[in-house]
Amino acid sequence: MTAFGAVVFGAALLLAALDGKTVSAQPEQRSVFLLTVADAITPATMDYVQRGIAYAESEGAELLIIALDTPGGLMASTHDLIKSILASRVPVATYVYPSGSRAASAGAYIVLASHVAAMAPATHIGSATPVQIGGLPSLPSDDAPVTPEAPMEQGAEPQNLPAQSPSAAAPSAMERKVLEDAVSYIRELAARHDRNSDWAERAVRDAANLGAQEALAQNVIDLVADDIDELLQAIDGRVVRMAYGEVTLTTADLVVQRMDPDWRTRLLSVITDPNIAYFLLLIGFYGLVFEFANPGSLFPGVFGATCLLLALFAFQILSVNYAGLALIFLGLAFIVGEAFIPSFGVLGIGGIAAFVAGSVILMDGTNQAVSLPAVGGVGAIGAGFLLWVLTRLTTLRRRRPVYGVEHFTDESATAEDDFEQDQGRFFGFVHMSGERWRAVSERPVSAGQSLQVLGVTGLTVRVAPAARKTPGDGSNS
């Protein structure tokens, strides 16, 4: 090493040491992390909150706030999210915020499970009633189920409940089991933090709802705050029950650090949308079909395989009816088969019927069903494709052959020499389609004469003199 290099290296080490001393000399900054959940509770939401809790723990945060505004979501994701909250080493405050927000269905469970439950003015909480997979007769189609494997209903009103509807059939054993499971679960969550278990049960059985002030008066939540700063001031000094014991919150003058959803969370949110997953499935399937039909194209195969894997990943974490998925694949196979094995519409019509039926029953939960306009649009495209295939097949069957000896019929040829007579017929050679053919004619033929091909027998073409136009043909009078 040269003397100059040694000086530069030493200066770099000195600056690094001084920088380290400067950083270590700064006082430790106490902070609170803020997560924003403003959508349905899905695997993407669960992943976002779980990673936020893990990061807050690693940074030694004083508090983690979840600003919540949700219509409900998947119970499996809600269960996992709540388990992370209860096991967190950092106190979690769920705050229904801003004004106008709601903690419906899954949101009610999350609020009651949190170490601090707060709401902003003009917000509400409730509607945690479970619904059987596929929906109950008395529930509107835009409500969603709550089962351990199915999504929660989204903000059902009390008059929509099976128990309150005179037209509803008596609940089945499975419906009673789901309801009692949800009641027991939400009561335990409320009791964990000394909140109103009786109201929590009514939120499940009767889809009860409360505004912010009513929830505070009935001991469903801990406080009402206008904004984040007021929330931090109000809970300063409050004692909360953690998994490892009681903790006194010191939240005054905390620095709030936002943790917005990153690209991973946004990507998960996009691909787990049932309509997006549905179209990824179709794109992936047809991409592979095009690749197999044109080997070596690469792009359709690579793109199709990627879309198909993303769709299967989305279906893995969504509540999927696998009979519906099988019907979709069967229908697509029939539609493609119509193009390769013409059945005059039998395969195609059966494929469209199976495809539409599978699309309708694909999702178990009504809040995550593929939209009917999307199904209808894709079905119409499939029907159009089938109609095009049938039209093409009919046209091709009516066309003259374009390959093989059959396509020479009615072609023009030119005699290369005078045909010689043999046993009552005339034989010679003709020039046709750039080739020299042996020819036979029933009438005499002279060199250079225009001929018309009547057919092909072996390697000999049958010809006749071409019809000549009369002098008057095509003339004007």
TrEMBL record:
GO cellular component, one term: membrane
Domain NfeD-like C-terminal, residue spans: 410-465
Membrane-traversing stretches: 276-293, 321-337, 344-363, 369-390
Domain NfeD integral membrane: 275-391
Membrane topology, as annotated: Multi-pass membrane protein
Region listing for Disordered, in residue ranges: 133-172
Ranges of Low complexity composition bias in the record: 162-172
Chain ranges of the NfeD1b N-terminal domain: 32-216
MF-aspect GO terms: peptidase activity
Primary subcellular site in the record, as a coarse category: membrane
CDD domains: Clp_protease_NfeD_1
Compartment list: Membrane
Record keywords: Hydrolase, Membrane, Protease, Transmembrane, Transmembrane helix
InterPro entries for the chain: ClpP/crotonase-like_dom_sf, Membrane_assoc_protease, NA-bd_OB-fold, NfeD-like_C, NfeD1b_N, NfeD_membrane
BP GO annotations: proteolysis
Stated name of the protein: Membrane-bound serine protease
UniProt source species: Luminiphilus syltensis NOR5-1B
